[in-house]
Amino acid sequence: MERKTVLTEQAPAPIGPYVQAVMTGESLYISGQLGIDMQTGEMPAGVAEQAECSLKNLCAILAAEGMSTANLVKTTIFLTDMGNFAAVNEVYAKYFDGAFPARSCVAVAALPKGGLVEIEAVAVRG
């Protein structure tokens, strides 16, 4: 199995012992992306703003491999408060043209750096 580490300066650097993404065969496995604003290096205060940044970061990693959200086959959203489900859905829906990937959304006790939302994904080329 050929394995390629994917790293782009257009998305936040990993904050632990992991990589932004791994490409193997035609599949791209993207690590969870916090809602860090790449312009400021900080996380905005609101969940919608963090979701927007998280998805922008995810898109930057996809673009590094010549892909887009059209290549996504599975996403997982982690929320610290399920009360934010609707707000995140509103932002999330803007990134797709109706061809949504399979998705899970789970509540977690906490996220790194005090984040409110984190999104991981799997994409397939072709």
UniProtKB/TrEMBL annotation:
PANTHER family: 2-IMINOBUTANOATE/2-IMINOPROPANOATE DEAMINASE RIDA, PROTEIN HMF1-RELATED. One of its GO terms (molecular function) is deaminase activity. GO terms for cellular component: cytosol. It comes from the Bacteria. InterPro entries: RidA, RidA_CS, RutC-like_sf, YjgF/YER057c/UK114. This is 2-iminobutanoate/2-iminopropanoate deaminase. Belongs to the RutC family. Signal peptide: none annotated. CDD domains: YjgF_YER057c_UK114_family.
